[in-house]
Design brief:
The chain has 230 residues and is α/β, with parallel strands linked by helices. It contains eleven helices and seven strands.
C-alpha cells in the first residue's frame, strides 16, 4: 500500500480514535473503497509531552516520535498527521527527519481562524502548549488577538484533560462552565485533542474551534475526497 495517510497516534489513544472517526464519518462515501487508506500507529507509551516541556520529566518523547514518522514514511505514507497539539513543540525537528509533509495542527488552526476572520480567541490547551507559546506565537504571526487562562483556570483545564478525559471519567462541568462563563472571548480554541472530544460530548457550538476538525478537512482535500461537513 502506497500513498496513504500516516497517523502517529496514542497521544492520547481516545483522541486518536476520535480523529479516525472524524476522518471516516466526514468522508463522502458509498462503499469501503471510497475512504482514505490510513495507517494509525497508536504509540501510547510515548513519554508525556507536557511533563518533558515543563522540565518535570527527563523522559524525552522526541526519539520515539522521530522513529514513528520515519517508520510511516518507509511504509509508504505520503502525508503524516499527529493528533496532539503539544507535539507541535517538536514539529520543526520532526519535519527535517522525513521527506513527506507533517501537518502542523497549531499552524493550520490559526490559519483557519485568520481565513475566517475569527478574532479575540481564548486558548484552551495543556500547560506544556501554553508555556511553549505555540498558539500565542501563531496568533501573533497572523495578527489574531488572544487570551490565555489565569493560573487557577489553567489548573482546571489540566484537571479536565488529565483527570477526566484521559482517565475516561465524566467531565467536571462546574470547572468547565466556570472557565467558559468567565471569559469575554468570541472564540475558543480546543487546543488539546482531549478537549476536541468535548465538542461532541458537550454539543459545543461552532465558536469552539476544534483543530482535529480543521485537520480532517485538510486531509480530505489532500486525497481528493469530498467532505460531508456542512
Amino acid at each position: 500500500m502506497k500513498n496513504f495517510l500516516g497517523i502517529v497516534g496514542g497521544l492520547g489513544p481516545l483522541a486518536s480514535s476520535y480523529f479516525y472517526e472524524l476522518i471516516t464519518t466526514n468522508t463522502e462515501a458509498t462503499k469501503d473503497q471510497d475512504h482514505i487508506n490510513m495507517v494509525l500507529l497508536s504509540h501510547a507509551t510515548i513519554a508525556d509531552r507536557t511533563a518533558y516541556i515543563l522540565g518535570k520529566s527527563k523522559d524525552n518523547p522526541y526519539p520515539d516520535l522521530k522513529n514513528d514518522v520515519k517508520t510511516l514514511e518507509k511504509m509508504g505514507a505520503d502525508l503524516i498527521a499527529i493528533p496532539c497539539n503539544t507535539a507541535c513543540y517538536f514539529w520543526k525537528d520532526l519535519q527535517q527527519e522525513v521527506n513527506i509533509p507533517i501537518l502542523n495542527l497549531i499552524e493550520e488552526t490559526v490559519k483557519y481562524l485568520k481565513n475566517n476572520n475569527m478574532d479575540n480567541v481564548l486558548i484552551l490547551a495543556t500547560t506544556g502548549t501554553i508555556e511553549s507559546h505555540l498558539y500565542q506565537d501563531a496568533c501573533k504571526k497572523y495578527d489574531i488577538s488572544y487570551q490565555i487562562l489565569n493560573d487557577k483556570d489553567q489548573e482546571g483545564i489540566m484537571h479536565i484533560i488529565f483527570e477526566n478525559v484521559k482517565k475516561g471519567q465524566d467531565i467536571d462541568l462546574d470547572i468547565w462552565n466556570n472557565i467558559i462563563n468567565n471569559s469575554n472571548c468570541n472564540y475558543f480554541i480546543l487546543g488539546c485533542t482531549e478537549l476536541s472530544i468535548l465538542k461532541k460530548a458537550l454539543k459545543l457550538p461552532d465558536n469552539f474551534i476544534d483543530p482535529l476538525e480543521i485537520e480532517t478537512e485538510i486531509i480530505l482535500k489532500h486525497y481528493g475526497k469530498k467532505s460531508l461537513k456542512k
